[in-house]
C-alpha cells in the first residue's frame, strides 16, 4: 500500500508544531520532505521512520514530549490501551531466556510472541525482524534491544503484542559500540502510530537504571510484568505532578 502524503498544515498538526517550525525543518533538511508543484509534501511512512530515529536519540525530556505527541495522535476507538503493560502477557515473557547468539534471540523472541496466540506466523516475523536488524541494529548501550520489523506486520497479527526476554548472560547483538545485550523487547505492531507510541514508552522506561536493575532481577514472567507496570505508574504519576506545578 502506498504511503499517503501530508502537507505542511497536516504535518504541523500531527507533530503539534507551528507551520513556521515545520517549514524551517523542511528547508534545512531536518525532516524527510520534497517539493511537489512548489509545495512541501511529506510521506507519512517516512515521517514515521524519522520519528522512530528521533526516539532512539532523545533525552528523557524530549522522549516525554514526543510520547505526549504520539498519544494525542492515537485513535482510541481502535486501540484504547494506555500502558505498555497492557500490550504484554506472561505467556510472551521468558525469564531466563535461553539464547547464545543473535539469531537465536530473534527466533526465541518471535516464538514468545507466537505463544501469546496473537502472532500467527513466527517464521515471517523472524524474517522481518532479522531484516530490520541487518539494516540498523536495535541494541542500545545499556544492554537493552528494542527489536521490531521495519513495517507493521498486520497480516500476521491479531493485535499488537510486546514480548520480553531476559538472558542470564549478555551476548553480542550488534551494538555499534560493542556493548553486550541481555534484555530483549520485541514490538509487534499492526499500525505505525501504535508502534511509535510503544517504542516511545519503552525508550523512556529503559533510560532508568533503577528500573533496568529491577527488571534484570525478576525471577518470573509475572514479576517482570509487575515491574514494568509499577515503573509505568510512576511515570504517569510524575507526569501528573509536573503538570500540576
Features:
alpha/beta, 4-stranded mixed β-sheet, single chain, 245 residues, 3-stranded antiparallel β-sheet, 15% strand
What does this structure look like?
- This protein is α/β, with parallel strands linked by helices and 245 residues long.
- The chain is 48% helix and 15% strand.
- It has nine helices and seven strands, in the order βααββααβααβββααα.
- Strands 4-6-7-5 form a four-stranded mixed β-sheet, with helices on both faces. It has a three-stranded antiparallel β-sheet with strand order 1-3-2.
- A hairpin with a 7-residue loop joins strand 6 and strand 7.
- Helix 1 crosses helix 2 and helix 3 (44-57) runs parallel beside helix 7.
- The radius of gyration is 18 Å and the shape is globular.
Question: How do the helices and strands line up, and which of them pair or pack?
Answer:
Layout: E1 5-6, H1 8-15, H2 19-27, E2 34-36, E3 39-43, H3 44-57, H4 60-72, E4 93-94, H5 102-115, H6 122-135, E5 144-147, E6 161-172, E7 180-188, H7 192-205, H8 209-216, H9 221-244
Parallel strand pairs: 4-6, 5-7
Antiparallel strand pairs: 1-3, 2-3, 6-7
Helix pairs in contact: 1-2, 3-7, 4-7, 5-6, 8-9
Amino acid at each position: 500500500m502506498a504511503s499517503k502524503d501530508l502537507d505542511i498544515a497536516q504535518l504541523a498538526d500531527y507533530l503539534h508544531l507551528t507551520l513556521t517550525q515545520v517549514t524551517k525543518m523542511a528547508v534545512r533538511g531536518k525532516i524527510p520532505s520534497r517539493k511537489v508543484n512548489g509545495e512541501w509534501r511529506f510521506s507519512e511512512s517516512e515521517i514515521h521512520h524519522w520519528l522512530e530515529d528521533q526516539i532512539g536519540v532523545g533525552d528523557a525530556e524530549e522522549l516525554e514530549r514526543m510520547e505526549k505527541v504520539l498519544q494525542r495522535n492515537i485513535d482510541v476507538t481502535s486501540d484504547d490501551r494506555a500502558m505498555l503493560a497492557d500490550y504484554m502477557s506472561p505467556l510472551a515473557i521468558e525469564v531466563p531466556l535461553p539464547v547464545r547468539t543473535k539469531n537465536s534471540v530473534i527466533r526465541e523472541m518471535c516464538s514468545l510472541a507466537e505463544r501469546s496466540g496473537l502472532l500467527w506466523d513466527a517464521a515471517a516475523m523472524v524474517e522481518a525482524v532479522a531484516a530490520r536488524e541487518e539494516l540498523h541494529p536495535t541494541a542500545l548501550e545499556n544492554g537493552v534491544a528494542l527489536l521490531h520489523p521495519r513495517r507493521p506486520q498486520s497480516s500476521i497479527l491479531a493485535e499488537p503484542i510486546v514480548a520480553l526476554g531476559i538472558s542470564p548472560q549478555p551476548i553480542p547483538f550488534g551494538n555499534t559500540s560493542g556493548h553486550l545485550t541481555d534484555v530483549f523487547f520485541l514490538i509487534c505492531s499492526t499500525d505505525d502510530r501504535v508502534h511509535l507510541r510503544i517504542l516511545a514508552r519503552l525508550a523512556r522506561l529503559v533510560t532508568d537504571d533503577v528500573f533496568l536493575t529491577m527488571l534484570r532481577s525478576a525471577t518470573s514472567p509475572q514479576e517482570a510484568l509487575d515491574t514494568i507496570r509499577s515503573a509505568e505508574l510512576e511515570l504517569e504519576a510524575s507526569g501528573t505532578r509536573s503538570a500540576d506545578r
